[in-house]
Amino acid sequence: VSSEMILPILPLFITTLGGGGLAVGLIGGLSDSLASILKVFSGYWSDLTRKRKPFVFWGYFSSAVAKLFFPLAQSWPVLLILRPIERIGKGLREAPRDALLADSSLPEIRGKIFGLHRTADTLGAFLGASLALIFYWLLKLEFRGILLIAGVTAFS
């Protein structure tokens, strides 16, 4: 929910901090690239060690902590540091989390487990984006307020 609250307003927030299209693209591209690259390594390391939970925990925790600092950013280069850190958490946790789900489920219901996970993820994405819209358009919250709510929500 928290990541999806941030996603629709982050480009607008970057522009209010003086960043243009290049800054928005640079922050988004760097963040997603680092997360994607790290997924390969975190999956490999969790397979090698057979320890999934530390990767999952530290991935979620580092993402949540980084989100708390988003509303404190006074310039877009700060987000050029914070957003990749937040997405690195995603890269760290994603492959080990999927492996943990597979390891924890019976083979005959593994598809249902992953389907349920994707359903919950999609529901969270819808809820997060909807909340951002409600906070911005209906409640007239500023971007920093929405980012703070998203940061706190990341710990729930």
Verbal overview:
- The chain has helices spanning 2-6, 10-16, 21-49, 53-69, 76-104, 110-138, 143-153.
- It is mostly helical and 156 residues long.
- It has seven helices and no strands.
- It has a single domain, classed as Up-down Bundle (Growth Hormone, Chain: A), CATH 1.20.1250.
List keywords for this structure.
81% helix, Growth Hormone, Chain: A, mainly alpha, 156 residues, 7 helices, 0% strand
Q: Could you give the count of β-strands? A: 0
- Beta strand %: under 5%
The third-level CATH topology is Growth Hormone, Chain: A
Work out the helix count: 7
Mean pLDDT: 96
Q: Could you tell me the radius of gyration in angstroms?
A: 17 Å
Q: Write the H/E string, N to C.
A: HHHHHHH
CATH homology superfamily name: MFS general substrate transporter like domains
Secondary structure layout plus pairing:
Blueprint: H1 2-6, H2 10-16, H3 21-49, H4 53-69, H5 76-104, H6 110-138, H7 143-153
Produce a short descriptive summary:
This protein is mainly alpha-helical. The protein has helices at residues 2-6, 10-16, 21-49, 53-69, 76-104, 110-138, 143-153.
